[in-house]
Amino acid sequence: MRATPQLAVVLTLIATFFWGSNFQVTKFVLASLPPWTASVERFFFAVICIFIFLAWKEGIHGKVLKQNWRAFIILGAIGVAGFNGAFFVGLQSSSPVTAALIVSTTPISANILEAIIYRRIPEFIRMISMVISLLGVALVITNGQFILSGAVQVATGDMIIFAGSLGWAIYTVGTRIFVNNATPLETTSWTMFFGAVILTFIAIFVESPIPALSAGTLESHLACIYIGIGGSTFAYLFWNMGIAIRGAGKTAVFFNFVPIFALAIQVVMGEIPSLIQLIGIVITVVGVLVGQGSINKWLVFRRAIKD
């Protein structure tokens, strides 16, 4: 299969769907498992799956690890252990809605970081699209309350999740800049491996993972398996493939779809969104389309037909 920009968009959307579903599935995980232990169990399954796929698809090459091991460890610590640890810990005192809103600021952080590194100003249309998308996301996940009340309460969990979102922005840009001669699959595998190792040490230090796992319910363990395989293995792989094909800035804007998919799953579970949330969904999609130039291409196509 040829690596085209269209394929990158599809893979990125699939990745964001898996992450969007994580918000709901995490509720089942944290019902009986502490956060760091849950993160370890999640990546236990993820690392096994990703390395089986790596061995089958490309083979495991020591040269890649030798050349990039420092970058893999740092990116694994920041983008895997940091982001996911912050997500699980933060959700103990932050609501999924607030967490989704905070995480949706990642594209802005990634584009700003990329602009600083490359010493260039992001394209104006890209900045406009991010603002539009972020506005739509805010409407969806807060049901318009941020406009009506204008008050924002910052909980400890909110700050932790924000720190995690900054870590994910660094990971998004860093996998493209600091990793050399490695495929997206190799980058995903090794950063995930080192992130899982770091998570294990943290869990041992702050929790008692073995007794906690023994006390966990079947539902929590099944939820961890789902998050590990879908929300980690495939999501990270598809995300890194999107970055490799289209770049960090263009890929990061799709992170705004994470809360949209989370809301869609709620609908499937019987929770119908309000009118203002539906408006937010439309605004978010329009913002992403503007950033990708799809609307301009459609207008040019219409003119060509009329002429």
Automatic annotation (TrEMBL):
Occurrences of domain EamA (ranges): 7-141, 156-290
Q: Where in the cell is it found?
A: Cell membrane
Listed A to Z, the keywords are: Cell membrane, Membrane, Transmembrane, Transmembrane helix
Q: Where are the transmembrane segments?
A: 39-56, 68-91, 97-117, 124-148, 160-179, 191-214, 220-239, 251-269, 275-295
Q: How does it sit in the membrane?
A: Multi-pass membrane protein
| InterPro entries the record matches | AA-Vitamin_Transporters (IPR050638), EamA_dom (IPR000620), EmrE-like (IPR037185)
Q: Name one GO cellular component term.
A: plasma membrane
Of which family is this protein a member? Belongs to the drug/metabolite transporter (DMT) superfamily. 10 TMS drug/metabolite exporter (DME) (TC 2.A.7.3) family.
Which protein are we looking at? Threonine/homoserine exporter RhtA
Please give the organism: Xenorhabdus hominickii
Source lineage: Bacteria, Pseudomonadati, Pseudomonadota, Gammaproteobacteria, Enterobacterales
